[in-house]
Specification:
- The chain is an alpha+beta fold.
- The chain is 18% helix and 35% strand.
- Strands 1, 2, 3, 4, 5, 6, 7, 8, 9, 10, 11 and 14 form a twelve-stranded antiparallel sheet that branches. Strands 12-13 form a two-stranded antiparallel ribbon.
- It binds 2-oxoglutaric acid.
- 2-oxoglutaric acid binds at residues 5, 132, 140, 145, 156, 199, 201, 221, 223.
Amino acid sequence: MKVPLTVLRRVQTAAVFSGHLRSLSSGASRPLPLRDQALISGSSRELVQIVGSQVEVRTAFITEEEEGAFLRELEPGLRKKRYEFDHWDDAIHGYRETERVTWGASCEEVLKRVRSVAFPEGSPLLGPVHILDLDKAGYIKPHIDSVKFCGSTIAGLSLLSDSIMRLVKEDATSEWLDLLLPRRSLYILRDQARFNFTHEILKDQDSVFNGQRVPRLRRISVICRNLPG
Ligand SMILES: O=C(O)CCC(=O)C(=O)O
């Protein structure tokens, strides 16, 4: 099932405040490697603190071997599809997608881990896992996932590439957060962050986090959602 995406307007950003989410800091003055710097930055310290509590980025959530297992399962089916570029009104540009209910043991083990950290126990989940394959030239425009199809929590694994997810407050577009999503990390958006903020994945040429370029290559996301309450 394709979850309908509501396209909303993209906005520009202003001052930047950073907060650490499960990250390390060396205190060195030269730019930190991507995996050692704060993973969230935003338009104000308050926003980083308040909405930052409803977003999580867990670096190295899966190993290289586990990423390989997902790719082996997903690539044969994805390769049969063409990237979609020309739907002018689509919320996603340069993508192909699929969904999957049944997985091999290694992927199922990872998905169990995702579910146990992301969703409250007993929360009914959307059965199929959604797979989104973004071409290097692809990107996801700002949108809020339909409340008809998914509940309070969205959790996604990022395969093959680092990327930046931008959240922008729907009714106050000067309020925003950027999340740095390293390859093989898990992100979780909950509650306000999921309902009151648009989310988007930046295109390669806009992919800059705290002044540091984050090359956006082809990226596959594996997304789990719960059902509306
Ligand atoms: O690719 C991602 O991680 C984000 C996907 C997304 O925006 C969505 O499915 O609503």
